[in-house]
Amino acid sequence: MLHGPIWNKIPRFALPIAATAILGQLFNAADIAVVGNFTGELRTASVAAVSATSSIIGLVVNLFLGVSLGANVTIAYAVGRDDKRAVSRAVHTAIVMAVLGGVLAAVLGELAAAPLLRALRTPEDVFPLSLLYLRIYFAGLPVILLYNFEAAIFRSVGETKIPLIALASSGVLNVLLNLFFVAVLRMTVDGVATATVLSNAASAAILYRCLRHTDKAIHVEPKQLRMDKGSMKRILRIGLPAGVQSAVFAVANIIIQGAINSLGTVVMAASGAAFNIEIITYDILNSFSQACTTFVGQNYGAGEIGRCKKTLALCLGEGITALAVAIALILPSGKLLLSIFNNDPQVVEVGYIRLVTLMIAHIFSLCYEVLSGYLRGFGISMVPAVLTMAGVCGVRLSWIYWVFPQVPSFQTIMAAFPISLAATALLMLVAVLCYRPSWRFAAAQKERTEDISIPI
What's the farthest any 2 CA atoms get from each other in the chain? Predict the structure, then answer.
């Protein structure tokens, strides 16, 4: 990350991240596919039940994933400065934070599950299944968050293949357990939820073993697993705004999910099925945002400001290219892919509306995510958080409260996505142009150099 050309290193870093996220989503999609094909008369209700939980799970999990991004930046910056002690303290602190945060999130999630489902106006035929799925999933949050923090640690030093291998291994286990619990033992959503937790425990165990045996600066020693106050502050300073941003983002999606739920079980099932396909393009664009954050973080730590600006331009250009290729490959076969989850013609038609709308709108997502990642690489986390909350959440909530009641249709709900994403991309571009982080830090660096060179 610190030497040589950047253009060929960014995709080598980003694409395994995208593959990891896509693979994880495919295994999550296997939950819906299994319950949609092996639960008999409950198939549509089961698909709707699992789909209805996605926004609630996102609310809890995304908060801590934002904090894991803080760990990524903190470790990457220390690596750029070649401060091995700071790297070690941050790594061990991040693992402890993941486990403790997972326990706290599990307790809060169990208490809030039923009220949140009620607030979402979950239909009565779906409610018991959704609640069962959520309770089991929340019980597994400690191992789920541990895997994500461990993956962030590996990515901070440019290692993206190990998390991919770990997820692939546990994902195969997830599919096998799904089929065993649902097709063989005749369980419903409780079977796929249990399989998800067990497979995440396996992936977390694999990554922990790799951290224990690596010879890199991120090597983990059990005796050193403790909270370092300085490391925790740096991780939270960067990660907490990102986590709050993601959580508020999830709140907006919960409001949207509530509007979707009001349109009935078929629309719920269609939206959930489409989400599991459209998320593929989001995972691709988000991987370039993570690449931007990590590359900028390391180069900023090393004082290579010019490489930070070059990273931004390359992440935007290469991200747009990768996104366009993905959309061109997926959209033509969208209806066929939707039928894998549920072959009800109504579900497929409604789901395709979401698929087309969201995938095209992801061009705006790419712009604001990469620009946001660029700012966070410099340790600037509050600005993108506030702008995302204003652009994405503000627009979507206003749309649902003011526009949707006038025209209560699925198309009306979907229109909120491109409008909010475009507004946020514009706000983020203005922020980067006004804040000019590379110019500011380059000027500060030059000033420090001149001060040192003045003879006394």
Answer: 85
Q: Please give the mean pLDDT across all residues of the chain.
A: 85
- Backbone angle region of 174, left / alpha / beta, with phi > 0 → left and psi within -120 to 50 → alpha: alpha
Total residue count of the chain as it appears in this document:
456
The pLDDT value given to residue 89: 93
pLDDT band of 344, cuts 50, 70, 90: confident
Summarised one tens digit per residue, pLDDT across range 168-206 is 888 889 889 988 998 888 888 888 889 989 999 999 999
| Domain ranges across the chain | 9-438
Of 245, 234, 228, the closest CA to residue 72 belongs to 234
Are 289 and 18 in contact, with CB atoms under 8 Å apart? no
Nearest to residue 266, comparing CAs of 163, 140, 126, 94?
126
Band (pLDDT 50/70/90 cuts) for residue 126 is confident
Residue with tokens 């719920």: 268
The C-alpha atoms of residue 90 and residue 92 are separated, in whole angstroms, by 6
d(CA 341, CA 347): 9
110 has a pLDDT exceeding 90 = no
| Token pair in block for residue 397 | 């909530």
More confident residue, 151 or 243: 151
CB 314 within 8 A of CB 6: yes
Burial of 257 (0-12, 13-18, 19+ CB in 10 A): buried
Burial per residue of 129-154, b for 16 or more beta-carbon CB atoms within 10 angstroms, e otherwise = bbbbbbbbbbbbbbbbbbbbbbbbbb
Average pLDDT over residues 235-258: 80
Res. 215 pLDDT band, cuts 50 70 90: confident
* Rounded alpha-carbon distances, angstroms, from residue 268 to 235, 313, 318, 351: 37, 39, 34, 9
